[in-house]
From TrEMBL:
<protein>
    <submittedName>
        <fullName>Uncharacterized protein</fullName>
    </submittedName>
</protein>
<feature type="region of interest" description="Disordered">
    <location>
        <begin position="1"/>
        <end position="23"/>
    </location>
</feature>
Amino acid sequence: MATLRGTGAQEARGDVPKFNLLPSNPPEDLCQSRFYEPSTNEDILYSWRRHKEIEHRRKQERRAGTPMVLSTLGPLPSIDLDDIQDCYNKATAIYWADYRFHFKTRQSPLTYSAKAMNVIYPQWFLAKVHNTDIEFNNFVAKTINLQDTEMYRYAVDTEVYQQTVADVVKTHKSLCKRLADVKPVFESLVYPYMPKRPLLKGALFFGVDEEFMYYRLRPLFRALIIFVDNPLSEPQDLLVKLIRTGLEDNLSAPIDFDSIKPEIKSQNDDGTVVTVPIQTAIRFVTELDEREKKAFPDKEYEEGLISRSHEGLEYLRNGFHMEETYTGKDPEGPHTTWVDHSRLEAVVVPRSWV
C-alpha cells in the first residue's frame, strides 16, 4: 500500500482507498532518495516527473497570487493574451468576490486566493496523482478576482459592491465570448511573446506558449463555475457556490448535483446553484472534467502530450536531470503514465510555495 503525503487541510478521496493521507510537507519524504539521488532508470523517470509537478504547482500558485481582475459593472476590460491563454485547458473558473484590504491583518485580496491553493491543488492532484496531466497549463480552475470598487489599503470603511450570482454568470458569459473570439490572434503572434504590463519591481510575468494549437476552451469551463462569496474564511473552511451557467449544449450530458447531495449546505429554488465545501467543489469539477475527456477524446491534444514527453525523454537521455543519464527503453505513452504507483513507498503531493 502506498502512502500519500498531502495537505493537512485536505481530506483523502473516499474512492481512492489505497492511499493514506499524511500532513503537508512532512519532515521525512519516504521517496527522498528516489527524488534527490535517482540511481536507476525507474528512479530517474520518477524524479523528473516530480520536479515537473513541483514546477506546475508553483506556476499555478503564482497565477492565483496574481489573478485576472474583472468588473461585473461594465464591459470586459482589455485582457492580456497570457491571461487569455491561461483560461484555456481549465475545467472551470473560480471567481472571488470583491472585498477590501483587511485593516488588522494587512492581507491583500490576493493573499486569500493564493492560500486557497493549499486546499485546491492537493484535492485536484489526488484524483490521479502522478498520472495527472500537467502539460499545456492544464489545471482544474482559473482564478479570477472581481473588483467593482476602488480599494484603499487603510480605508476600512470604503463601501464595497457585493456581487450576486447573476452578476458573476453575466461576467463569465462575456469572458467566454472573448475567449472564443480572440483565439485566432495567437496565430499571428511573434514568439516569444511577453505580456505588455508595467515594469513594476517584483512583478511576475508569464509568457504565451507558442504551441497554442493544444489549448482549448473547454465546454465545461463555459457550463460550470465556482463563486467564493465569503473570501475571508480560512481556506479549509471555505464554502463556495457551484453555479450552472446554462451553457451546457456541448457537454456529453447535463450537469446535476446528485452525486454530492449529502454535502450540499444550501441551494437555490431551481437547483442550479448549490453551496458546498471547497473540497467538494474541486472534486466534483475534476470528476466532470474526466467524464468529458473520456466522452470526447482529443487526438491532437494527445499528440501534443506525446511530443512534450519525447522532449523530456531526450533531456533525460542527455544526462541533464540531476546529472544522471537515462539508459532504459523508451516508455510508452505520455509521461502521465511513466510512474507506477504500486512500486512507490509513498505518493507525494507537490510541495506548496505559498
